[in-house]
Amino acid sequence: MSDADWDAIFRKPEVIFARTSPKNKLEIVTRAQALGHICGVTGDGVNDSPALKKADLGIAMNDSGSDVSKEAASMILLDDNFATIVRGIEEGRLIFANLKKSIRYTVTHSIPEVIPQILYIIVPLPPMITSIMILVIDLGFEILAALTYAWEPAESGRSLMRLPPRKPVTMHSIAQLRARAQRHPPPPIDPSTGLPAKKGRLARMAIAVQAPFTRVWWQDRMEKTEGEVLVDGELLSWSYLEAGLISTVSALLVFFVVLNHHGISPRQARLMAKQTNVTYFNKDSPSYTYNGRTFTGEEQFYALNEARTGIMFSIYILQVFNLFICKARFRLPFGRFMFRNIRTFYGFGSGLVLLVLVTYIPPLNAVFNSSYKSIPLYWLIAVGFGCLLLAYATARMLILRKSRPIRWNPTIDGLHMHPTVWSTRQRTKSIEIA
What we know:
By secondary structure, this protein is mainly α.
């Protein structure tokens, strides 16, 4: 068959090849891979070995499979049950979805950590969060909370199996694949061995160095590919621009409210940080007088530490809300499925214990630049922003449902039998006999 015939065959949603030889099986796999399909082959006989070896995933039978097929395969099906393959695919989709949720959650907290450092340099402002506090956030509760997504179940039933493939094969993707193959011709054949000629190490290094200065290299990098990736624009938009900014505003507001409670306004904090000949907000800093009130160095130091503690708790509270919001990828962030993973509570509960320890235990708060005088009343500001984040995520999901609805595959309740020429002819004969 010609290339056009194979293209026409693989455009069908389902194809059945009958009475195939080992050579035919190998050709089917090769042709499908040439179009960009991910091929999985199951087999148990010696004649299945070439196709098992060529496929992206060769699966051999454990009980009925031959030794040759097991050696050629990438995986052995222990129970010889094809339904196990379907469950494995579903588990793989669940792992991919949970990885994406974990990245979406983890990246968010970097914005309220970075922006205060930028404001400290540009405005300037007092150092709002210290490096050791960032370590408490990143290596303390953030790691534990992010790991809980490893046990996250699917949002609803077998919804993952109704999603289309992450990288579907379309006419556009086939054209891209063939254009890339033309840009990268195969290496010449070595006449002595009959195999593709291998270049030396220095030649490969020279090609790698010259590649960024070629047009082909840039065409490959700038080429827009179809399908879903682990980190996409929607994930980065949520983490950096949406949830990240809401969390940052909450942290900054808590910081300035706590400072204002001690009598230091945002304007005065800026003026104090702007001084080049004097350093404020240290224990040994000179006193600062404002509106008839004098702030000693110790008062400045403890006020700043209490405001820093407020930022740390604000980031934690917003991330607890974000931890549950990121669970909902296809549904609204409400319902019993949000609380089925009991390890989620262990994750943010241990984070709360850690923050309380480094804040209210006197030997630790001196090390971590926190304040045991921190008033939990100011944490309500972060709780309010957490509710705002939840409402925003709900409205965002409703808008995305209208603008970019999810394309669910139809549910297959049983074997779909479609009329063919043969079945129609047999039915006609039966009617004539009757």
